[in-house]
Amino acid sequence: MLRPRRLDIFMLKQFMLLFIGAFCICLFVLMMQFVWRFIDDLIGKGLSMEVLAQFFWYMALMLVPQALPLAILLASLITMGNLGESMELTAIKAAGIPLVKCIRSLIVFSVVIAGLSFVFQNDIGPRANSRLRQLMMAMRQKSPELEIPEGIFYNGIPNCNLYVQKKDMETGMLYGVMIYRITNSFDDAAIILADSGMLQSTADKEHLKLSLYSGEWFENLRSQETGGQAEIPYRRESFVEKVIILNFDDGLNITNTDAQDASANSVLKLTERIDSMQHITDSMGQSLAAEMKTHVFTTPTMSRHDSLRLVAKGEQASIDLDTIYSKLPIEKQRDVLQLASTDIERVKMDMEFRGYISKDMHELKREFAIERINKFTLSFTVIIFFFIGASLGAIIRKGGLGVPIIISVLVYILFFILDNTGFKMARQGTWTIAFGKGLSPCVLTPLAIFVTYKANKDSMVFNMDAYRNFFMHLLGLRFKRHVASKEVIINDPDYKRDAQRLSTLSQQIERYSEEHHLMHLPNPVNVFFKYVPDNEVERMATDLEDIIDDLSNTRDRYVLSYLNRYPVVSEKAHTRPFDRKWLNIVAAIILPVGIALYIRMCRFRLRLYRDLRQITSVNEQMIGRLNDIS
Fold this sequence. Notes:
Strand order of the largest sheet: 1-2-3-4-5-6
Largest sheet: 6 strands, antiparallel
Shape: elongated
Number of strands: 6
Distance between the termini: 78 Å
Helix content: 55-70%
């Protein structure tokens, strides 16, 4: 029987507190983002605390699956970063416990959280989503007049622009009302002015009842005459009280029931609805195919039934429409053409109608399929984020809220871009649903495996100095020498011997410059195919570093100043692009790459020429100073 060790309990204690805090923060951020989208539906509606509490409760339940992955990522990063920064992780590894075994209790906990996320998405989330949508509908219909702003024209009502000068929030009265209505065209435009009015919802909650008081109605009546000079009749009406029924789109699709909302269904219901929609589309296709196979155009001389009967008996192998048509009188031919045209138009309209239905059915089916697979991928993301966060925290070893939050945001942005791109492409039908929704897990899973392997092997994958040195070598950037004064010096340098060595080095540099013409272009064949190492430069660079290392123990500030003037010599970059012969041959074969590397090598030859001249110049000053000291 497996029993939790003290290390497992310790890791859970360190992780749990951070996870609870990170989860509350992430859930709060997501809730505020959601509330901001519907802030107009909450403010000024006179909603009770009970209604607001229900709104936030259902919203929190709906957003729990989205907050769990980010909370796991942030908590695992901070936990492992704190352990690494306080050297506790180093002590655990020194005791012979590998990283994977160290975090096994957290792995089990993340798997449990992934299962809990699936339960929320499959059982609790759909019901919370349905109740939240109903609650929002009731909140929006509570005071429809609050949708109308003051002082500007509101175009949320179809074919109507409504202007309200002032509103009374307590009584719901509207003052200074002006309505500009367009029915069929601008010729039928109507302008309604009223001193006051009141806006109320009808019993079916699909229309608005606008009661106007003390106003006038100006309307153009569309003329039945033709011609550009015809005048349009005009009507003016004054009224004391008038009631107008308006179609009102409150931004909430009332027909969007649970049957049509993918997020309000469990996996089992989604599967049932996908199967039913597939059955409907298949039935439509089969019925259309059957109708098209049995369809025969009728003629005045031979009915469809007679034609099929003759073909079935074998008395007529096929129906030659051209022959039948040519034997008809002119009047009958005209009737046949008219009948055929009508028949084709009817078939065309029927196919277009079925096509629209099939297209809508396929779009709805894709939404349901995307939601079904999303319930699994979002739960799996919890486990992926844990391994990424724990491994990066063990590698970076930075606790607190600074670096972990930055890394968490970057990882989540990558996930968000991949997931939303796949979702949109799958919803449009450009990608398959499995590929679109599997894009983010397929990209992040190898990343999680890579960083976990590196963390378990104590790899310095985030060693900035190593990356800096690599890119500086790649781009040919110069390293600056920095020799500082030492506080404690055990052995003083041998100034006389170092002066003699510098003098010898200057003679070697002069001899090398005469034998090797660094200012001339090298032979490309010798560079890429017949490489000969330049051991002389390597030896001179080694001797120079030896002398500098010995003189760095000096207390003389002039000597230190001269030491910092010595350049860092690149020993091999002026001879060939790569150390391995086959890489040089490949680079030469790939012509553009070979040309770029050849130019780079020529640039290093010019740099070496300048470095050797600078070394000789500094040597003269250094030898004079060393002779004075000794």
